[in-house]
Amino acid sequence: MALPALLRTARAVLSLGPAEQLRPEKAFARGGLAVSAWDLSKNFGKLKAVDGIELQIREGEFFGLLGPNGSGKTTTIHMLTTLARPTHGGATVAGCDVRAQPVSVRRQIGLVFQESALDRNLTVEENLRFAGALYKMPAGLARARIDELLQLFNLDAKRRTPAGELSGGMRRAVDVARGVLHRPRVLFLDEPTLGLDPVNRRALWQFIARLRREERVTVLVTTHYLEEAAACDQVAFLNAGRIIGRGAPEHLIKQFGAYVLEVESPDPDGITAHFSARLGVGLKTDASVSFRIAEEHFSIAGLEAELDSRVRAMHLRRPDLNDVYLWLIHGGFGGRER
Ligand SMILES: Nc1ncnc2c1ncn2[C@@H]1O[C@H](COP(=O)(O)OP(=O)(O)OP(=O)(O)O)[C@@H](O)[C@H]1O
Ligand SMILES: [Mg+2]
């Protein structure tokens, strides 16, 4: 067989793209970036689902991609994991280019889909063994890793139970075990705790924390539970396909202000008009208006004197990541960016 034909055959066996080269580690070690994306964009027809985002996630970092329904989180993950081709822009994951080296990217990542990817008719163990075969793990290695993960998730007793007979929380845990079976360097978790009760959510986060500690895996997570995202090293807020804010959660909360003043009222518009000259723009939610208060020594005593029938209650509390989120999405807080 002529050399070009041999090469073509070898590439077909390895299912590599024609230009793909497998030399990821050096680039990864050099850059120290687990994920780097530039002008990353995805259009569906006229819809700009992801619109020119920049991302830099350091190796070992715990990164949260946050945003409302339809803001482009899953589409971003699909591009970074080579399941969707960017319309323009690009990214590297674990030092490999998502366009030019998709197989190398896939070898080094784990992905937990927003929807469970388990075969409901196969047992827990069969699902995991099947995943091990897909990752081309040697059988002995896969068996040992499956045992380890089932122990870790307290799922050993369910090993021979069909996935379809597990509770939602157990199924999610198996999904995560499946995603980390091959010890990926970068793990993508798309709403891993959706639908889990607080105990299972906590167990899952404890597992992720352990995985980060013991296997130094970089984690990109999307979640709607912002109290969970507060544990991230860095977060980015997506809205309509664009990043509208980013930073360390504690830094964003500090930047937000000292307090949130919530005023409950049957007339939120009247309240906004009354206070906005002094307190700035208010954020209306149902029957209340919130104001960002920058001063650490702010007191509501002065405002209480003005209370009339338009005010039912007024209270001051410390902000959290939910406030940052709501103000970024609805209220226009801080340095908006692309
Ligand atoms: N295959 C597709 N074809 C057409 N439009 C799509 C496709 N996938 C996603 N979209 C659209 O792209 C936008 C972003 O969707 P995406 O699933 O990325 O959002 P998301 O932030 O993950 O939302 P959620 O929080 O609900 O999971 C939405 O308007 C969605 O309808
Ligand atoms: Mg999604």
Brief overview, please?
The protein has 338 residues and is α/β, with parallel strands linked by helices. The chain has helices at 3-14, 24-31, 73-80, 102-108, 124-134, 139-152, 168-180, 198-215, 226-229, 249-256, 268-279, 301-304, 321-331; strands at 33-44, 47-58, 62-66, 88-93, 96-97, 109-112, 186-190, 218-222, 234-239, 242-247, 259-264, 283-285, 288-293, 313-317. α5 crosses α6 (139-152).
Please tell me about this protein's structure.
This protein has helices at residues 3-14, 24-31, 73-80, 102-108, 124-134, 139-152, 168-180, 198-215, 226-229, 249-256, 268-279, 301-304, 321-331; strands spanning 33-44, 47-58, 62-66, 88-93, 96-97, 109-112, 186-190, 218-222, 234-239, 242-247, 259-264, 283-285, 288-293, 313-317. It is α/β, with parallel strands linked by helices and 338 residues long. It has 2 domains: 22-246, 3-Layer(aba) Sandwich (Rossmann fold), CATH 3.40.50.300; 258-318. It has a 6-stranded mixed beta sheet with strand order 6-7-8-3-9-10, sandwiched between helices. A hairpin with a 2-residue loop joins strand 12 (283-285) and strand 13 (288-293). The radius of gyration is 24 Å and the shape is elongated. It starts with a helix and ends in a 7-residue tail after the last helix. The structure holds adenosine-5'-triphosphate and magnesium ion (MG). Magnesium ion binds at residues 73-74, 114, 190.
